[in-house]
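Researcher: Please translate sequence to structure tokens.
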Amino acid sequence: MAKRERVVRMSVEQPLWRALTAYRVLTMVYAVLLFVFTREDFERPLVAAGFLAVLAVWTLATLPKVANAAGCTKRFLVADLTIALTGILLTPLADAQAQTQDGATLPTIWTAGSVLAYAIRGGWRWAGFASSLVAVANIIERGEPSRDTLHNVLLVWVASIAIGYVVEVARASERTLARALEIEAATRERERLARDIHDSVLQVLAMVQRRGTALGGEAAELGRMAGEQEVALRTLVAGGLTRRSHVSEDESQGAVVRIVDEPDDGPQDLRTLLAPYAGSRVTFSEPGAPVLLPPAAAGELAAAVGAALDNVRGHAGPGAQAWILVEDWPDEVIVTVRDDGPGIPDGRLAQAEGEGRLGVAQSIRGRLRDLGGTAELISVPGQGTEVELKVPRGKAAKR
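Model: Translation complete:
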């Protein structure tokens, strides 16, 4: 049994969370050691010691919170920033000279870790919010901030916003990479299925077609149907494995096998919608590049082509050949459906519309009219019929 491709996603954020965890521990140790070696400079060392004890316990207890994005909740971020702001505002109470000197605050550079958590978790907007609160707290703590204070505040503000922006770009790149890997894995799986189908189902259908044609009679009809299914299956394999909803009936009952792609949010490739119509009696010619239209417009145009083929099978006879030609122009998309049937007698369309048969009036012209396009039918008795469907890109995009 063949092994399926599995996409392994790597988070670009995880190294940042690890670095933040280490940063918080190291800066907590730095703040404590700074107090130990300069405690004689504090007028109220007990205030500083009490806050630093809380800071140490909080840092160690919340290490799992900054291990990943799931643990770093909004409630935690608010509490963490509150501790940092409280430490800044308590600094003058523990050391009155802090307002007249550019000394360190109680949490020192540990405060930057709290702001970085906002940046990694929520991007540059969250980082800007947190760093602005820290800036206000530092200005209040200084009373009359000096130039160095303003420089430090500006540095934290710019650095945190820059890191937040880089995180957002990294997340977008990660999503793009993951999508590319998924597409690559799906392509490999499609190729594997195509090989399996080619080695089994398609060969069996081809053999049934050859043997049925050789035997004649009812076996020849069975061979013909096997040949049509072989062509349809080859078209499906070549076009890729896409999600489709379908309504199918046997052609002997006068209906077309219709396969329609489920619409996506983005533009739809018209070729993938029309390719399933190809068969032993329907030739499909397409451009080499995708023919992109809004999903609704592409679906309506494909349905109009299906209605035209219904008319070919219903009125041109079971042996009639049909051709589908897709032309992709900058300002419009043109799809032509032509057959080699007996053609339509003059006045027959008006008579059919008067009898309530609205296949051409509604299924074809009505659909194109709703798209802002046109459907032109040219038929010469004895020379077949040609239906030209035109969809302007500008009007189709408004659908």
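Researcher: Any highlights?
Model: The first strand starts at residue 244 and ends at 247.
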